[in-house]
Amino acid sequence: MGLLSKKDTRLILDPLADDNPITIQVLGICSALAITAQLKPSIVMAVSVIFVLGLGNVVISLMRNIIPSKIRIIVQLIVVATLVIIVDQVLKAFAYELSKELSVFIGLIITNCIIMGRFEAFALGNGPWKSFLDGVGNALGYGVILIIVGFFRELLGSGTLFGFKVLGDSVEKTGLYAIGYENNGFMVLPPMALIVVGIIIWVQRSRNSALIEEN
Amino acid sequence: MLEHIELFFKSIFVDNMVFAYFLGMCSYLAVSKKVSTAVGLGAAVIFVLTVTVPLNWFLDQYILQPGALAWLDGNRETPELSAYADYDLSFLSFILFIATIATMVQLVEIIVEKFSPSLYNSLGIFLPLIAVNCAILGGSLFMQSREIETAALALNYGFSSGIGWFLAIVAIAAIREKIRYSNVPAPLRGLGITFIITGLMAIGFMSFGGMLTGGEDAPLAPQAQTTQTTIQPAIEKEVETTPLVVSE
């Protein structure tokens, strides 16, 4: 990676694991869980957040010296809202079905705590290039969790991935279903998203004991 | 009147902000370590939702909807005659809603500070947090997508979803206060166990699903629709087994 110094690489890679926005910083859970019943909306959501957070971080970082600190929250919200409108209009134009499925949750990227959190914690104090890397890194960390949750919920809940029947046909009893396997309908319900994330946190923290919290 | 009562209970229990849609999870997880702070934040959310949802309802009705600008040349009743009939500003709703919310939060903060310093001291730190609480923007966006008809219903919706959020955060705070004395596996302590408890509470709240409509009304979310198909067989089984017990 000639373009990136060692420090820059850390900006991107840290949020993927040990400084993950969802499991460690506890940011951006709001709009994340409701759309992870299937893999496809999870990926669309992840890509949207990467776009909004990467660009938003650059814009805020460029304006960081001229924003009066008293009204910075409103300025930040307007910047995010503009970027989210772009994402929303693009989705409505090119993937209308998907945008109906995601309904209000695209709009809720505006209040996604990851975005405000990174603006406050990083973009207001660093240059545009670093902020861009930080934004993309954190959004990737967020996307990874979304995709893991979406993968397990769709695979175990409906036996499909991206809508393809990877485990065989549940009606005609082919593939795994021929030997008595059943879909776990519970996995597609909202509460299981929380429990799957809980299990991811469990696995991550038992592998890295430095992350364990005090009670 | 009946539709008000129905909307009230539906927003609190069936469409609970936290358990059905995961809105406002960030502050829900971050500020739920003590019951007293949870009560403060919950009260602030009820207040801000009650104010912003009706406000955004007026914005939606008079500015944003397709043809909503018809009142400008006096054609409110017959929008198709208006010169503004073709205007559709709904793509601006995100930016207008969030601007309303941010200004309202600032205004509320100033007013509360002026007139009730004691309330300000208990709510003060939470008010700026609320501008970026997904539950607030989510309330306005759901109000828009569900096409709530009157301003009174919008007010009711804001207030009752606020109560639903309040209940959720107070309940989890009470559980977290008690769980401090339990022997939770080390990697699950703190965040992990809170996620799992919230999941279990959400399963509990799912049982309110058929309370008002008898389960006929199809919910918005695609995953909620599968609820009915998976739950129904279980109910049928119960019906089959009960007569047996009676005959014995």
Summarize the structure in words:
The complex is a heterodimer of chains A (215) and B (248). Chain A is an all-alpha fold and 215 residues long. The radius of gyration of chain A is 19 Å and the shape is globular. Chain A has one domain. Chain A has helices spanning 6-13, 30-33, 39-63, 72-94, 96-102, 104-107, 113-121, 128-158, 190-207. Chain A contains nine helices and no strands. In chain B, helix 4 crosses helix 5 (93-115) and helix 4 (35-64) packs parallel to helix 8. Chain B is mainly alpha-helical and 248 residues long. At the A-B interface, helix 2, helix 4 and helix 9 of A face helix 2, helix 3, helix 5, helix 8 and helix 10 of B.
Give a count of the beta strands of chain B, DSSP E runs of length 2 or more. 0
Q: What is the string of SSEs of chain A from the N terminus onward?
A: HHHHHHHHH
Radius of gyration based on Cα positions of chain B? 22 Å
Taking pLDDT < 50 over at least 5 consecutive residues as the criterion, the unreliable ranges of chain B are 218-248
Average pLDDT level of chain B: 77
β-strand amount of chain B? under 5%
Shape of chain A: globular
Derived from helix and strand composition plus strand pairing, the structural class of chain A reads mainly alpha
Number of domains of chain A: 1
What is the global morphology of chain B?
A: globular
Helix content of chain B: 55-70%
Our count of helices of chain A gives: 9
Largest sheet of chain B: none
Determine Rg of chain A (CA atoms, Å): 19 Å
The most extensive interface, with participating residues per chain, is: A-B, 55 and 59 residues
Helix-strand makeup class of chain B: mainly alpha
Look at the structure and give the mean pLDDT of chain A. Answer: 82
- Oligomeric form: heterodimer
How far the N terminus sits from the C terminus of chain A, by CA atoms, comes to 41 Å
Order of helices and strands of chain B: HHHHHHHHHHH
Largest sheet of chain A: none
